[in-house]
Amino acid sequence: MIAQAKNLLKQHYGYDSFRPGQEKIIDNLLHGRRTMGIMPTGGGKSICYQIPSLIFPGVTLVISPLISLMKDQVDELNAVGIPSVYINSSLTAQEVNQRLALMKQGHYQLVYIAPERLEAPSFINTLGGLNVSLVAVDEAHCLSQWGHDFRPSYMRIPELIAKLHSNPAVLALTATSTPEVTKDICSALEVDQEHVVQTGFARENLSFHVLKGVDRDAYMRDYVRKNNDQSGIIYTATRKEAERLFQLLDSLEIRVGKYHGGMNSHEREEMQEKFVYDEIQVMVATNAFGMGINKSNVRYVLHYQMPRNIESYYQEAGRAGRDGGESECILLFSAQDIRIQQFLIEQSGLSDTRKENEYRKLQAMTNFCHTENCLQAFILDYFGETSPEPCGKCHHCVDDRDVEDVTRDAQMVFSCVKRMRERFGKTLVSQVLVGSSSKKIHEFSFHKLSTYGLMKGKTQKEVSQFIDYLIASQFLALSDGTYPVIQLTEKSALVLKGELKVERKQERQRKIVAASHPLF
Ligand code: ADP
Ligand code: ZN
């Protein structure tokens, strides 16, 4: 059967061989196994259900939230000789019925459905009676409450599958799944752990950079100018900021577009179209922009602010270089970004448990900004890959400063945290360490602690940044919530006992490296 699949790959798409993961997924499906596929953006997920749809006798349902993409996908499929159709909210009831009728008569191999359709029980019942061979669930992380984009209508999918008389194969697909989310998806869709096919998450053509303390406007302006023959996306955390940057670049006569939730759908479509056809060079956008943009030659993604979590970050950054060409992903970090994201989480109206979950994810994102190890490896580790190799091209991989032993400094911090009973945040801990005399310190009598003023020679900012580094390296942990307190970890206990060393890239050379780095 897999030989037949290969022939179809050649015949319809003109490709000679499958990409990693594709063959295993297709083989599973052809044997009727419920399967989950985790592949990076651009990895070739669509072919995993499109080819089986050509082999199966019945229809393949594709559940996808990307309504704006459906029409294009269906047009492309019809063009390569795969009869397809979509059903979503852009159709009238009459059109829906017409399509369903043709579906019953076996006119289509592939039918794309927006998940919202499943909220109508009558719709589920109608589908139940059809000969469905495969159900493909795109963006399957939307099924999990712990994912970053939970969609309640996805919860209807198990119900739909149960109603299908034809006992179809099932395929869940996503590009962003943590081990927690994978478990959720597998249990909801009854996929055996052994049928989870995961190809590497690594995007070899992307180089990641985190820059701190730069003048962001100036940096962005220079970067966009320097890359004026390239397509790029600039992401901001808020609409207001997107508007401001749009004005700023526009005043410099840069071909800039904007995209955010405050614009009407007509304006947004127009901007997207112009971007796709290279009439716009750079798009300034909030996270509203992306789900479904299919532009392959985006050469850079610049995050003007830190996004809310690693999942969103990797998805957004991953819109660069879908054509496989070398591309840059740059994040401009400032400590205020954390507060903006905390505010957005507070305003989100989520339940307390889900808010806590969001705070945990935000902390991981912050750690990404403070780590001094490979950035790509940090992301892969977050998504559950075991011992990822350094990428060799990110900000930290190309930073060849010497490493120094900072164990003694770390011990000072840890014993101070211990003396303060692990009940206070970064600001107060660093104030105690540098011996500052704030009101709060006297209130708690912290000036009487033996660790008070232990790091007098440093500024509070330096100590605070050192603590960020210790958190990012898991020597310290932060509690969840709006006012996180610093806590010791197993690693810090070992350091205090003298059984583990703490190392860090040398401070003094930092500026020299910065000046010679091509990104500055
Ligand atoms: P994803 O949905 O995982 O982001 P797509 O399904 O859109 O990725 O595929 C990305 C690109 O890779 C498409 O242009 C697709 O035609 C191409 N592609 C997929 N599979 C193969 C293959 N086996 N050989 C070569 N190109 C492929
Ligand atoms: Zn790296």
Automatic annotation (TrEMBL):
Coiled coil: none annotated. Its cofactor is Mg(2+); Zn(2+). Keywords: ATP-binding, DNA damage, DNA recombination, DNA repair, DNA-binding, Helicase, Hydrolase, Isomerase, Metal-binding, Nucleotide-binding, Zinc. Residues 219-363 form the Helicase C-terminal domain. GO terms for cellular component: bacterial nucleoid; cytoplasm; replisome. The keyword Isomerase applies. It comes from the Bacteria. One of its GO terms (molecular function) is hydrolase activity. Residues 26-195 form the Helicase ATP-binding domain. The keyword Metal-binding applies. GO terms for biological process: DNA recombination; DNA repair; DNA replication; SOS response. It catalyses: Couples ATP hydrolysis with the unwinding of duplex DNA by translocating in the 3'-5' direction. Its EC number is 5.6.2.4. Belongs to the helicase family. RecQ subfamily. This is DNA helicase RecQ. The chain holds residues 1 to 520 of 718 of the full protein.
